[in-house]
Amino acid sequence: MLTKIYKFTEEELRKYTQLVAENAIRNLDNFEYENTQNAEPQSPQPIEYENEKQMEILIIHMEKMTERKEHIEKTLAEIGLEEKHSYITDGNPESFTQEILDKYFGGKLILYPKAQNVTSCALKHFLAYEYIVQNNLEGALILEDDICLHDDFMKTFYKSIKEYHQDAHDKHNVIISYEDSPLIFVPRSKRKKNQVLYPADRNRCTGCYYINKSAAKAALDDATTKKCRIAIDEYHTYLQKQGILDYLWCQPAIATQGSYTGMFKSQISTKKDLLIKIRWFFKSNYKKLLYYFR
């Protein structure tokens, strides 16, 4: 007996993958440690910070990406942070000059045209570090404009900053990663109750992270003298390996880049895949389960 195979139209596939992606976001933290599984929904509240006047959110953004700006504005408004952010919009490829490139970059990031988007992304992050240092901020939360914040973002972020001060991490050059885009997590065997920050030996992308002033200055100093020759996330790993900064992961992760889930098209990757949202759903939940049993 022959079975008729139903062929989805592109519109039907789009609607289905959107539904799957929405379910994936809701279930990203299904397998986190026990005392976060049954957390009650948190109403919007301002981030409590040691020096709240110095707390700022810096958004890495390309002005022509209007859809992403609408997304990030809505995201921040939903958690009560619509008045605490600034945009880093300079550093687009069309504004490159040799003087700008020579200031921080070397190697393929200034030699090859195909690397322009990677260079632009890194430059925007360096400009964010300049903003932190020049304005004498204690630190800043850096967001790329496609970031999706999880439901427990506010509660966990505040807890991480409190832990950051209590454990004297603020005495060092520190970056705290909050995202799960590369799908790497702290193994459950290493997690401790009521602890959210853990030392790490590599980056977890640069879509959502906190950087303090001393780390921002250290990164600028290194890039100025030795030059950055790799993507900004890889550069963070390089700085950690060189002992220039401490890299911490937040567990649970509380943010995901929309360009990984298929919500937005990546400005760096040229990968095209209509099934990216479905692939993300299965892969992300598999990886969470895997780390839960490690």
What does this structure look like?
This protein has helices at 10-27, 34-37, 66-78, 98-104, 108-111, 116-134, 153-166, 213-226, 232-241, 258-261, 276-292, and strands at 57-60, 85-88, 139-144, 147-149, 174-177, 197-199, 208-212, 246-250, 255-257. The protein is of the alpha/beta class and 294 residues long. Strand 1, helix 3 and strand 2 (85-88) form a beta-alpha-beta unit.
Element layout with pairings:
Blueprint lengths: L9 H18 L6 H4 L19 E4 L5 H13 L6 E4 L9 H7 L3 H4 L4 H19 L4 E6 L2 E3 L3 H14 L7 E4 L19 E3 L8 E5 H14 L5 H10 L4 E5 L4 E3 H4 L14 H17 L2
Parallel strand pairs: 1-2, 1-3, 5-8
Antiparallel strand pairs: 3-7, 4-9, 5-7, 6-8
Helix pairs in contact: 1-11, 6-8
What is the average of the pLDDT values? 81
Structural class, by secondary structure, is alpha/beta
The radius of gyration over CA amounts to 20 Å
Q: What's the SSE pattern?
A: HHEHEHHHEEHEEEHHEEHH
Most strands sheet: 7 strands, mixed
Shape: globular
Number of strands: 9
**End-to-end distance:** 46 Å
Tally of individual helices: 11
Strand proportion, as a percent range, falls in 5-15%
Give a quick rundown of the structure.
By secondary structure, this protein is of the alpha/beta class.
Tags for this model:
294 residues; alpha/beta; 7-stranded mixed β-sheet; two-stranded antiparallel sheet; 11 helices; disordered N terminus
